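User: Could you walk me through two proteins back to back? I'd like the raw sequence and the structure tokens for each, with a short line separating them so I can tell where one ends and the next begins.

Assistant: Of course. Protein one, sequence then structure:
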Amino acid sequence: MKESVGVRTLQDAYAEYDRLIAPIEDKMIKAIWRVTRNGEDAEEALRIALATIWRRWNRIAGHANPEALVIRICLNASHDVLRGKSRRRRHEASIHANDRAFLESQPAAGPAPDEAAVLREQESAVLHAISRLSHNQAAAVLMRLVQGRSYGDIAQALGCKDATVRKHIERGRERLRRMLEPFVASCRGEAVL
């Protein structure tokens, strides 16, 4: 059976919140923190608790000890969050175990030793070239081309505008192209002028 919210207007809701919940917010947060001990989990538990409080407002407002009931709701929400997190971890672990078992049952399919040596040499050359870029160019190139980050994320990380990030990437790629040109030509067996 769904409970209806007995508050008629938004102003009434604010007044009821200020009367009943606002004075015990610190206690609610402390109770949640004691169980979760993690900022993200505590935020999620608080959101769940506030939603539950809103849904059960009539019962809470009419309860003999509303503060105790609110704290109980907070504790239950905290435990629910931790149970959900534990369930997700177990599920992910079982998936990873299945993937690991599948991969271990497959024959090893790596590159031949001479191909592996060439790949290591190429990787070393690229990393060396990137290390010769300016700090911002290197960071922007790695974040965009290797990690696949958006221009906005990179701009936020570097503390600059999107246009500046695009310029760092453009200039970094051009410098890399020039620095790696002799290496690429030698890999292709072309003469380097």
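----
Protein two, same layout:
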Amino acid sequence: MKSIKSEGGQALIIFALAAIGIFGIVALAIDGSVKFSDRRHAQNAADTAALAGALALVNGQTTEVDGVPIWKLDALDRALDNGYDDNHVSNEVWVYRCHEIDVTSPVDCGPYTGNPDYVQAVITSTVNTYFARILGINETVNTVHAVTYAKKRGPFYDGNLIVALNPDPCSGGNGNVQLGGSSTVTLTGGGAFVNSGGSDCGMEHGGSCPTIDGGSIGSPGDGNINLDGCPGVPAPSTNQPPYPFPPEMPEEPEECDVSHAGSFSSNSSTQTTTLSPGRFNEFPPKSGGGVTVYDNMIMNPGIYCVNDVVKLIDQHLILTGHDVTIYIRAGYDMDIQGGTITLDAPDTGPYAGYLIIIDSDFTGTVPDCHINGDSSNTYIGTIFAPYCDLIINGGNELTSYTSQIIGYTVAILGNAETELHYDINNSAKNQPKIGLMR
């Protein structure tokens, strides 16, 4: 008689193997859901922490408490409110500005690295598993981060009188800021900044040494300030964070719309043409339809959107404008020379402090933008032409500007003294802004 062997043990083996698979599916469903839920919660916590820190930073909360600035404490408190207390066991929290990266952080600021206008919050969270332990997985880790833009209200470009935004070390073999000719350049209340970080052609003088009173000379890199032998010039402050390029541009004003045409009228008895703000295809507007443009032109307060090159060449022209902004649309440049010009920027409104704005659809070709001034001209307000090689020619007499000069490159030429004065009350200002970037 044959013996029959029991096969009951095989079923147990099959059941054991099936149980592992079942537990794996359950672990994926339950532990995976827990991990996903925690990740979403941690991301919300990082977003709100970064925004809280940015808001406090914009409001100037930089005073330190026990060595930690208040803006960072606000961000950490917001993370704590969401259950992330930085205990280094179940979670860790990092908060920092993107030019002061914490090397212990598991991620960096990406494209915003090195820029002080951005704040990053990073959270890692350890999640204990339930069913995945059977598979040898005791915990999972989530790492999330958020970057916010934080621009506080304050002096435009830190109150520097001259800023050359070209990020490249050299431009045509000349300095990105050139103090040429035999002119003497005096900067009062502000300094100069060269945005390039190379070893050559940052700032150089070909004539007299500049005088700087109340400002400094800065750049992102060593050795690109060629002012050796100039007495009284402060030592360059190198390795500063560069300004972003392309820069953030002001929004195009509504006056640029075709429905906001500017107008002008003339008075033969006073030999005066009065301009009203709006859009102009040419500036100064040419006479047409029997209307004569006289030598004396007065700009009423407001925004003037110009669709063609600003070119004032009439030596007899007297141009006066109070509380005005000239906005030159993309694709055009500027050439101001001759005449007697008195212009000042508005004190209030979205373009407060902006005297001239030159927009651009920058394609790599940088136009020359000229201002040929003399003692009969007065410019008060910021000249913002980040896509122009700005050339300021002071002529043969003392030329004085109460203006910031911000261009792609800046050259101050001439044979006499050129003075630039910084007055925060008559200059553009950074408007406070915060925003979640990623």
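The longest strand covers residues 139-151.

Let me know if you want the two compared in more detail.
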